[in-house]
Amino acid sequence: MPFTNRRLVLALLLTVILAGACSESGTNPPPPPPGPGALAGSIYQRLNPELPLEGAELSWGGASAQSGADGSYTLSPDATGSDSLRVSLDGFVGESRWVTLGEDDQQHSFTLLPYDTVPPPAPLAFGAATEDGQFLRLTWTAPADSSDLAGYWLTKSPGDPQAQRFDISVNSWLDLGVSFGRDYSYRLSSVDASGNLSAPLEVVDAVNAPPVPSFLEFLPTGDYGHVNLRWNANDEDDFAFYRLYRRDGGLSADSLNTLVYSTANAGDTLFTDTG
Question: Taking the domains of the chain in order of start, what are their residue ranges?
Answer without folding.
Answer: 1-31, 39-114, 124-206, 217-273
